[in-house]
Amino acid sequence: MESQYTNLAETIIQRASSHSKNRYIVAVAGAPGSGKTTLATAVGAQINRARQVAAEKGETNGSIPKTMVLSMDGFHLPRSALDALPDGEREQAYIRRGAPWTFDVKAFVAFMKSLRKWADGESSSAEKLYAPTFDHATKDPVAAGVAIDSDVGVVIVEGNYTLLDEPEWRDVGQLVDYRVFVDVDLQEARERLARRHVEAGIEGCLEDGFARVDKNDYLNGLMVKEKLGKVELVETNPSFVLRAVKDVAFEDRDVPPLKDPWDVRVQIAQTGICGSDVHYWQRGRIGDFILESPIVLGHESSGVIAEVGSAVKNLKVGQKVAVEPGVPCRHCDYCRSGSYNLCPDTVFAATPPHDGTLSKYYITQADFCYPIPYHMDLEEGAMVEPVAVAAQITKVGNVRPNQTVVVFGCGPIGLLCQAVSKAYAAKKVIGIDISQSRLDFAQSFGADGVFLPPARPEGVEETEWSEKVAKLIKDKFNLGEGPDVVLEATGAQSCIQTGIHLTKKGGTYVQAGMGKENVVFPITTACIRDLTIRGSIRYSTGCYPVAVDLIASGKIDVKKLITNRFTFEQTEEAFELVRQGKESVIKVVIHGYQDKQ
Question: Residues in domain Enoyl reductase (ER) (predicted)?
């Protein structure tokens, strides 16, 4: 945050020095718990410190103005005014103290007008101004609590509603020279305030702290974000773009507008890297999807609702959501039957020609954003996507209680298939991989047993060896004729062959891993054993809500899968790490873009 304070301080110094009037007024607004007071105080201190350093060096400090920070808290209605309210209104006023209607907005606007005249030199430049302050001990304003000396060149006025676009309040924004809005995730601000109440002894536990915040501060925060007036900062949409094969770059794109009444704009908070993202980066195509023009990468994301379309009723600004990256047409036979993952007109993030989610903002449809509960963080929210993939695979395999399930592959999807199968009460879940470290992790994550296939002896045909490995697995885990369900999550030909030989008669084999486009497949064995063979792609109806529930309930601890975390600026480094395929790397997550000021 220090760099953000420095950037803003430098901007104010520059603007104030070139300002045509005597003094410069800055308004800083933000929701309760956004850190606006901290920001205003830190910026004011930095400007004054720069002024002092210049003076100590004997340099002229005329271009660095003395700065003062004022809070609008001094314009709270006094307790006597609240006590004079009728029954019911009085109690509500105390519960909602801090809401816009518990301030003396007329007095605040009048003060800002006098401050504007003083700043413009319309009143005596030697004149002192006085502003009220707020006594937190008595919970009452103090008239003329602070003096604004005549040598002050910049006044920073901070408060929740200094930029509110509501009757009377909106006059304030017209009376200042520079408008700064501290934009934060409302859920993070909510948690910060709840913890603050507990630490201050106002509430005894975090649950009570949240209850207190939800009755007042959170409601005020929603209004502040929804009714934001004009701000000076020009916003762009920083994005991580795949320009061509092996050619990626950061680009400042335009902030995407809402195009449909059902659209929402999500500020992306966390994004996991999927193998398909790396595949497009390195090869430029997956099947029929070919990179022909630049696209933004990323599709495993969570974020915070930043804007909603006029028809959206189920989501609000500031709400935490997991973003389902594919939006189907909703009208074709596949969509109407619930298999919208097969819709030929799906707009899927980071699948050519569609942009992905590795941007500050991403536009999608409201019904493909899933609210996540307050106790789930946004990192877990980004992991909903791979859990939903695993939920689809197990759904296709019809995994049921008391079944035996074998999963080929202990990468993120294979591990999650094992975890989802256990959550569905499978009797025995076996993980298979060629990496011992991955198998060790699988054993700790949820698998009942793990198996490292022995290397194929020289001179032995792959098909023959696959059949022998299948027998080794059956014998080691007492699987009898084989498991009820085999979930293949590698795409490797040897695993596919072993999986077919392994599955019990009448059992189900699901192919989820994608490797070579064509492989040698033991079709005779599949027919003789009367296997149900299914493919699995993406997710269908119900998978995302199930994934949210599995994480929220604690049945799957997705945090254990995250081995590496990167900032947005380190995205290319994160992709390179995934490309290297190190056994120690399971899931890589990238933090969303953070404004520099």
Answer: 243-590
The two three-digit tokens of residue 418, written as one number? 């094992």
Mean pLDDT of 325-351: 97
Q: How many helical (H) and strand (E) elements, i.e. helices and strands, does the chain have?
A: 20, 26
Same CATH fold assignment for domains 1-227 and 236-371: no
Give the C-alpha separation, 196 to 103, whole Å.
Answer: 23
Question: What mean pLDDT, rounded, does the chain reach?
Answer: 93
Is 1-227 assigned to CATH 3.40.50.1470?
A: no
| CA–CA distances in Å: residue 53 to residues 2, 46, 152 | 18, 10, 17
In this structure, what token pair is assigned to residue 352?
Answer: 């050519």
CB 271 within 8 A of CB 589: yes
Q: Which helix (H) or strand (E) holds 429?
A: strand 428-432
Q: Closest Cα partner for 338 from 541, 536, 537, 535?
A: 541
Whether residue 169 has pLDDT greater than 80: yes
Give the pLDDT mean for 553-559. Answer: 98
Which top CATH class is 236-371? alpha beta
- Type of residue at 365: Q
The C-alpha atoms of residue 418 and residue 407 are separated, in whole angstroms, by 7
Say yes or no to pLDDT of 78 above 60: yes
Within 10 angstroms of residue 167's Cβ, the number of other Cβ atoms is 8
Distance CA 447, CA 422 (A): 8
Contact, 133 vs 74, CB < 8 A?
A: yes
CB contact set of 77 (below 8 Å; sequence gap of 6+): 93, 102, 103, 104
State the number of CA atoms in the 13 A half-sphere of 561 facing the CB. Answer: 28
Dihedral sign of CA atoms 359, 361, 367, 372 in order: positive
Point out the least confidently predicted range of 175-189, 309-323, 396-410, 544-558.
175-189
- What is the phi/psi pair of residue 511, to 5°? -100, 110
Instruction: Give the C-alpha separation, 503 to 529, whole Å.
Output: 8
The residues spanned by each domain of the chain are: 1-227, 236-371, 385-544+549-553
Beta strand 152-158 with 66-71 is parallel
How is residue 46 annotated by DSSP? H
Cα separations (Å) of 538 from 295, 513, 542, 548, 579? 20, 11, 12, 16, 21
Picking from 596, 561, 567, the residue whose alpha carbon sits closest to that of residue 274 is: 561
Q: CATH assignment of 385-544+549-553, given 3.40.50.720, 1.50.10.10, 3.40.50.410, 3.90.1150.10?
A: 3.40.50.720
Q: Given this model, what pLDDT does residue 400 score?
A: 97
Q: In which band, very low, low, confident or very high, does the pLDDT at 597 lie, cut at 50, 70 and 90?
A: very low
Give the global pTM: 0.65
Listed in order, strand segments (DSSP E) in 11-112 are 24-30, 66-71
